[in-house]
Amino acid sequence: MLAAATLGFWTASLDASVTTAFYNNNADYGYRVTFMPDLDQRRSASGDGSITGLTNNGQVACVPASCTNMLTYITNHGHSDFFGTPTNWNSDATATKNSATTLINNLGNQMNCSWWGGGTDPAGMQQGLAAVVDSDKFNIVMQGITLTATPTINNMMQAAAGGGVVSLCYGFYNNGGNAWDGNPILIRNGGHCVTLAQGWSDAVDPFIQVRDPWTNNADSVQSNFVNRRWSTRPVTAYGWNNVLASYTNLQNVGGTATNRYLDCFAAITPKAGVSLTWDLADLLVFLPALNQYRIISLPFPMPEPPLLRLNPWHNKIMMLAKINERLELWEYLIDLDEWKPFVIPGVQPDPDPRAVFFNRDAELVIVDKNSVHRYRDLGDRFLDMGVMELPQEYDFQVVSYDNATDAIFAMDIFKRVAYRIDASGHGSPQPLTVEQMHLICDPYSPSSVSPRTGEICVLDRVTSAIWTFAYDESTRSLVRTGVAQHSELSSADELIADDNGLMMVAIDGKWRSFEFGTDGFLQERESTFSGMAAQAGSDLSRHFTAADLELMKGPEWENVSPEFATDAQFRASCDWDFDNDRRVGVSDLLYIIDNWGVSGLIGDGSSPTVGVTHLLGVINAWGACDF
Asked: 519 and 451, same structural domain?
């Protein structure tokens, strides 16, 4: 058995740059990142030529500037060769100013920024990020307005709470009057991009705080780092391309409506995976962003392989184990380095579930052969959110989940039927037709939905092939989009579609990576997870938790002065609010007293040991947070 090791390196503390990140549902989430750069977009050259500027003084450079904030944050947190070099960006030093200008300029060129025209469009934004982000270590999650959907704050906060750093863009929309049905008509007239610093919702006052690259004069001096706060409210309107949808209005503090509406967002999230080791007594947690893994022991030897799922919103590993023909639910609490058993409430799922995942509402979903069970994690217990019965005449052997649409696709291979089911329990199962489904011969085919294409991927071990299908909303059908073979697929245990377009397949206890060739065959390709120990039930979910992001704060950061060491404006925006109640008060003072003399606890840049400096900081910031 592999020697067990604790995950103490995962333990959260107040010097983590992502100090808060959770998502329970649309009305209960929180996210806060500190040490996020706030680089200026408006940059003019000095008269003597010692300080360089951007083309057109950076008047339309908001996209590359806001994205440079994200990229330099990653560089400053353990990835010194990621984008530039680790730097204290809140500095007026000439070399620092010029370095930032160069980074913004180069990224803008990669984004095909129109420096004298309209700036950068979403396609260019994604293209530029893809050019500099290592796809083997990080994901780029991007959502924008389409003919059928609009990005929402909820989607954005899910990406953030799952460990992402986020840049968001909004449009300026003029009021074009009301349509025949009374809904307003929004006419876009330009836009802007900023970087996410905070986001909160308690069902009463949802808001975000951002780093705005425009908040400076077009001069050669770096402005102070400071957050702007906006309330977020949904507005049903006719917006982009005259699409009637729910748009997010970014309102001024106090709820005053503005002409700012969310257009798109881009999130960069590091990858992770959790896999069973050979002897079924340990878990192997792999962190590609750091090219390392850790081993943790299971609470007891497993007679059968359990199902593992990373919970991206609560810093946990979820495990379902079949014990004596009954499912047992366990959570590994990463912060505490311990396993905790839970009782599955309500109607018990079948002991051989077809699929287990977390839906968009952060609910645990268990799909068995005839029903969909949903549970809400309350910390000390699970709440039964209801059971949706599936058509009882079928036995759904192949089940996969699409996070992008929050939809479950279930197939009965024997009877050649398929259904699409809302994973949050709304509506009823919709029957689908599946093109060439009769050619799939394996009744218990592993399946997965590609995060890149949205295609349902089905591994048929009888024919040693992977089939791909795309959902067609207009015809309520799954249309076959491809099929490719490889002789070794006949002994595969698991299939996970990778966000890079690869097919991760567990064969003989190891993960192997394949991609579709042009000749109808799968071609093997090396990837981050290639060769890692694998068993059925593993999860290469591509999510990092908030505490994992602290891992990115490597030794390179230690010699860099924190940006906020002398930033009074940031202090006013609640740096001393340790219990996140949006005010500095008695509980925060007691926290300082309780931790007096502790070293390395508070990464505020003022002193390595909790003492008088921190006490004065709390006293000076006393009262409601100045957002």
From this structure: yes
